[in-house]
Design a protein that fits this description.
Elements (H helix, E strand, L loop, with lengths): L3 E6 L2 E12 L2 E11 L3 H27 L23 H11 L3 E3 L6 E3 L1 H20 L3 E2 L5 E3 H4 L3 H7 L4 E6 L2 E9 L4 H11 L8 E10 L14 E11 L2 H21 L6 E4 L11 E8 L5 E11 L1 H6 L2 E3 L5 E3 L1 E8 L1 H10 L16 E5 L6 H14 L6 E2 L7 H11 L3 E5 L1 H5 L2 E6 L5 E5 L3 H27 E3 L3 H9 L3 E6 L3 H10 L4 E5 L3 H6 L14 E6 L3
Parallel strand pairs: 6-10, 18-19, 18-20, 23-24
Antiparallel strand pairs: 1-2, 2-3, 4-5, 7-9, 8-9, 10-11, 11-17, 12-13, 13-14, 14-17, 15-16, 20-21, 21-22, 24-26, 25-26
Helix pairs in contact: 3-7
Length: about 550
């Protein structure tokens, strides 16, 4: 085991091998982690795997060094250097993924980031998938102003109380002080609903389902994290107005299933649906329900949401309609959102020590084709690569035929950038009518006959998509633990996990729970049938009186 070294971190021992990587003229040393707390056999297997990988790379480098081609140094471009943090050094690792996989960049405005093209393309894809499903349900897109007069914002008391600490204000135009302050929208209820009040007259005007894809600003003072917590973010806000509570709640299920569909089948993310407690619900709503996710570091995070507003806003903004009996009634309302935070959740859950991992169905390029270009066979190999690019068109392949970079350098680059499948075409493979394909998620490599390529690629991409989803489900399940005492809950939280405990609905118990667990929250109420039954005989872990529900308790973003 000459190339294995041990690094201890707390209880855990990590094994790694030092690998030499050529970067232009320089040779860099990089640590390749084999894993933590491995048993002897596991370590042996991992080492064999690592050896194989190293040999493959040596072969390729030898091939390309036979007839040297021009190569370019990285020019100190930070994007071309690998990830140097482990996934359990989460915040450093996550920041490196953001910057080095070229997803985001910081700006001079603290808490506001630039979405680089890959990240924005993924957001566009999410938008497109959600939007097409919304339209099937009768949703129409609109656009309302960014600035909201203060008097509008102040109409719904709970709502304004919930948002006012985070509102950014416009107070001047040039040198002139404005008569009335204008809020930069933190959400648009207060600018949309005065218009709804004007437009809605009778039951014939309902349901009204207006959506907008826009940006909002919430001036939080917590530590910002790219995508996960930023002061400005992008989202959809869908606001609907309906005649009855029943219709409103039914619509809620439909829209949540749209979000669930896109998050599970495109982002490959397993989330758990649940209702918020009174304390945690949206300011002004009757109830809030969301999809919830667990990050690799054990912190929980909220995903897409549905708020049922009942008649609260209708009463504050005077949204009334004449029903079929000719009687005037207040309308019922819902709001829904999915935000760019889901990008961060997805990047964090799927990626690894080598960089980004993207589910094929959301990746801007599902396949990268890398021809091994040697002087004497270049023309033939390039021609084959172009043919393959054309054949695989439906997977939006990226053909990297830059001659100034070595294949090994390109392999690292696309591993870092998370393209799901890599296809290498070398002269020797071509003689056998084969190419080598490598999965980004498992790093599994195999030779495939070109004649079967399209079919195989489609199969493997599907498999990557499924396997990432089931991994994310396993991650969620591995992080939750049921218990019925405060002592055990503290242990669970300290172990960076999420506890499920019986609690009563008194707010003081929820407050005490937070204080007693070092800041963990009653994140959402369990929706599981087994919990609904079991709760009848359970006691609140704080006051020991009858419990009302099981809650998931977690440290959160
Ligand atoms: Zn209690």
């Amino acid at each position: 085991m000459t190339y294995t070294e041990i690094k201890e971190k707390g209880e855990k021992k990590y094994y790694y091998r030092v690998k030499s990587i050529r970067k232009g003229e320089k040779v860099d040393k990089q640590r390749v982690y084999l894993g933590g707390n491995l048993k002897k056999q596991e370590l042996h297997d991992k080492e064999q795997e690592a050896d194989k990988e190293l040999n493959n790379e040596k072969q390729i480098n030898k091939q390309s060094e036979n007839k040297p081609i021009m190569h370019k140094e990285t020019n100190g471009n930070k994007n071309n250097l690998g990830i140097t943090a482990e996934k359990d050094e989460f915040s450093e690792w996550f920041t490196q993924i953001m910057l080095k996989a070229d997803l985001a960049d910081y700006t001079e405005v603290s808490g506001c980031i630039v979405f680089k093209p890959t990240a924005y393309a993924i957001w566009e894809k999410i938008k497109q998938e959600v939007d097409v499903r919304f339209k099937k349900l009768g949703v129409q897109n609109t656009y309302f102003p960014l600035l909201i007069p203060e008097k509008f914002l102040n109409k719904e008391k709970e709502h304004v109380k919930g948002f006012s600490p985070e509102v950014a204000w416009v107070t001047e135009a040039g040198d002139t002080k404005l008569n009335e302050r204008l809020a930069v929208r933190p959400t648009s209820e207060t600018i949309m609903y005065p218009s709804f009040s004007k437009w809605i007259r009778s039951w014939r005007d309902l349901p009204l389902k207006y959506n907008q894809w826009n940006n909002v600003v919430r001036w939080e003072f917590k530590h910002p994290v790219p995508f996960l917590r930023t002061r400005e973010f992008l989202w959809n806000e869908l606001h609907t107005v309906l005649s009855t509570e029943k219709e409103a709640l039914e619509e809620g299920k439909e829209i949540i299933s749209v979000y669930k569909d896109v998050c599970e089948n495109y982002l490959a993310l397993y989330g758990m649906y649940g209702k918020k407690t009174e304390k945690e619900k949206f300011a002004g709503a009757v109830s809030s329900q969301k999809l919830h996710y667990v990050m690799p570091n054990g912190k929980a995070i909220e995903g897409p949401c549905f708020h049922y507003d009942g008649q609260n806003f209708a009463k504050a903004y005077d949204i009334k309609f004449l029903n079929k009996e000719g009687k005037e009634e207040f309308a019922f309302q819902n709001t829904y959102a999915i935000t760019t935070r889901m990008l961060g959740v997805m990047f964090a859950i799927h990626s690894d020590e080598k960089g980004l991992i993207l589910p094929p169905k959301i990746a801007p390029n599902q396949v990268v084709i890398i021809p091994i270009l040697l002087e004497d066979s270049k023309t033939k190999v390039l021609k084959a690569a172009k043919e393959i690019e054309k054949e695989l068109e439906e997977f939006s392949p990226k053909l990297d035929d830059r001659e100034e970079y070595r294949p090994g350098f390109k392999f690292n680059e696309y591993e870092l950038k998370g393209i799901p499948l890599r296809i290498e075409i070398g002269p020797r493979d071509l003689e056998k009518n084969e190419v080598i394909i490598t999965r980004r998620d498992t790093k599994e490599k195999k030779s495939i006959k070109i004649i079967n390529l399209k079919q195989e690629v489609s199969k493997i991409l599907e498999d990557i998509q499924k396997s990432l989803f089931s991994k994310s489900k396993k991650l969620f399940e591995s992080k939750i633990e049921e218990c019925d005492s405060l002592e055990n809950l503290r242990l669970i939280i300290n172990n960076k996990k999420i506890g499920i405990v019986p609690l009563c609905k008194e707010q003081v118990c929820e407050d005490n729970l937070k204080a007693e667990t070092g800041g963990a929250k009653a994140f959402f109420i369990s929706d599981k049938e087994k919990h609904k039954d079991k709760i009848k005989s359970e006691k609140c872990i704080i006051c020991n009186k009858k419990a009302d529900y099981f809650v998931f308790v977690a440290k959160t973003y």
